[in-house]
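tool=predict chain=A
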Amino acid sequence: MVELAVRMLKEKPLGTVGAVITLLLLLTGIFANFLAPYGMNDVHSLSALQGPSIRFLLGTDNLGRDLLSRVIFGARISVIVGLVATLISIAISTFLGVLSAYIGGTFDLIFQRFVDAELSIPNLLLLMIIISMIGPGLWQVILCLGISNGIGNTRMIRSLVISIKENMYINSAVALGASTRKIIIQHILPNIMAPIIILFSLTVPSMILNEAGLSFLGFGIPPPQPSWGGMLSGSAQKYMLIDPWMALWPGLALAVTIYSVNMFGDALRDLLDPRLRGGIGRYGKKVKPTEAKKIISINQEKGLPD
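tool=predict ok
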């Protein structure tokens, strides 16, 4: 972990910035009660639609609620939805993807056709239909996002397991009489853990953005809980020309968060995925020109590509 952090600091400065902002988002969500100057629904009726000031650093909305406090509490919603929905998604995709690839045969064929049917429906439309049937709410949104995304991600896990299960050590374990459970836990899961970590980091921003989109359309987190997507709809649209701060701050918070988590996820992918290390060496160390020429000449003598 320390080596990974040092490498990210040296090789991926933009990813490091994204990691710092992601950590700040996590801490903001955890300690929102202590960081927010006011309650998320405290109404200051004589201070409605005010711009930034010493008392209200980001201004107030049409009801006189402090925008800074609501943005901070909105970070808590984003952290909860992003992390919990992603955990559910990764658990489902790993479980079903491993089973589908390892069992194979008729089970794999039938399950993959089900995945094809799920992927053929636009994700946002599918989520809106499901939530309209079960009702909006925090845990309803989390479950819908986790399950729908988890089914779609089984394709990636399945392809990883298919490439691993044909290795000699898997065949040796089967020949020695190892149970399916032991093979999956001791041999397959450890070898796909790095891609799963990468998938986790890249799924979190998708979950946050989907939740914001659902809340913006009225299918997400119901008021009075302050979701960034919900803060951009309704009153923000109505009073945007009078008080542009109502839409600016939650929109900016959402954009910075998505960008930062994406940069962090991309940096993790570059550092953990062995297929992307190629020309810069096993641990990201640049090859010297003289060493590179030797490698090229050796490859040419053996008839290998440069």
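The chain has 15 helices and no strands. The CA atoms of residues 29 and 214 lie 20 Å apart.
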